[in-house]
Design brief:
The chain is α/β, with parallel strands linked by helices. The chain is 38% helix and 22% strand. It is built from 15 helices and 20 strands. The protein has a six-stranded mixed beta sheet, with helices on both faces. The protein has a five-stranded mixed beta sheet with strand order 8-7-9-10-11, with helices on both faces. The protein binds magnesium ion. The site of magnesium ion has 6 residues, from loops.
Amino acid sequence: MVAASRLFGTNGVRGVFGESMTPHLVHKLGVAIGVYYGTGSTGIVGSDYRQTSDCLKASLVSGLTSAGADVLDIGYLPTPGVQYVTKISDVEFGVVITASHNPPEFNGIKLIHNDGVEVPRPIEVNVENHVAGQAHGTVSWGRVGRVHYSGSGVSSYVRGMLKHIDVDRVKSAGLTAVVDTGNSVGALVTPILLSKLGVRVISVNGNLDGRFPGRPSEPTPSNLGLMSEVARDNGADFGVAHDGDADRAIFCTSSGEFQYGDRTVALIARWWFERDSQRRIVTPVSSSTLIEDIASEYDAEIIWTEVGSIRVSRKMLETGTKLGGEENGGVFFGPHQPVRDGAMAAALMVQILSETNQGIEELLNSLPNYYQFKDKVSCPSPLKERIVALVKDHYSDHEIDETDGLKVRKPDGWILIRKSGTEPIIRCFSEAKNETHANQYGETAINLIKELVDSAPDM
Ligand code: MG
């Protein structure tokens, strides 16, 4: 049998509405998911606030019910909110309609297992094969599923997070936070959660608007200028921003300084290692040496994974690890759920600030500093594998970790070279204690890859 064309990428099925992401495709995905879980199964469906989310939800629900599955529609919620409700409910699966941090014209589908984590690849393949096949999967009229509605998703999710926080202690700290939810579903949760913890919340881009007029959805330094300005001008203790589905949290200090995700993960890891006897963290190979520094301070173990939040979640489940983190602002707090969760990250931050009685600046200043470099090179897809093998030969006198691509160890840093799974590019990421070295390592690798691509025979 010829393999069906791949629909699911590293974070579900994604595309531009009206191009690769159509109501027709989503209906077919709904049927395929309904067929996989079977007549009489129940699935939770939630979405972010994109302009096209309602339209695609109607198609998805039509597909699911026509294949005989019942649907519990929980409305607009962050991805981790849908994951949490799926985990605590007696259902077979969950589906989130979201394109995470992508621009507003994108949308997508994420399929969630009943443990709240994205489904493993074999289930995606099953769904892809059904979409590619001719079988329609529609059941007879008497077995078509029903749709039920629940408005309690946000409150269940918020209650779930509050269980892990010392509410009285945080309340007594009297904190102020700027919360930038980028006009999407984070606005339904994080301001409420923090308010319940006695935090004075100043909202930025807190109005729901599926065209994301306030800022692009990805929480990068260039997109978070307003949050930084408001934090600085209003004497806030910190600022926190989410992406479109609020599974990531990026922080700024009271003076408005942007913080990369691994610095936040390092603070949370340090706090956690002081309290929990497990002293173990799961993190992708792209994470900063900072995580290694904190782990060695506490004699903690690091379990390295490939890049991608689902790799971290599945490894946490497999090894029973309670903490995970990513450099892009992904915090995985296992006692709540082993998936990245932006609101939970904000709650952990206020817990840490209230327990340590230190400002976020002071806490961050106690961490070692690293410099990073990121770039990519175009490379025809059929060549990618061979180019990476040649790069490996070039660095053969170095220590190389091949968990995901090549992580070449340098005396004061590393270079990570990874081929993209979906695009004709090779990515390069480097880090060092010293800015010149970080750039030098990265630029040398980039130039080497360019030369190898240019001198490769046409394919
Ligand atoms: Mg996201």
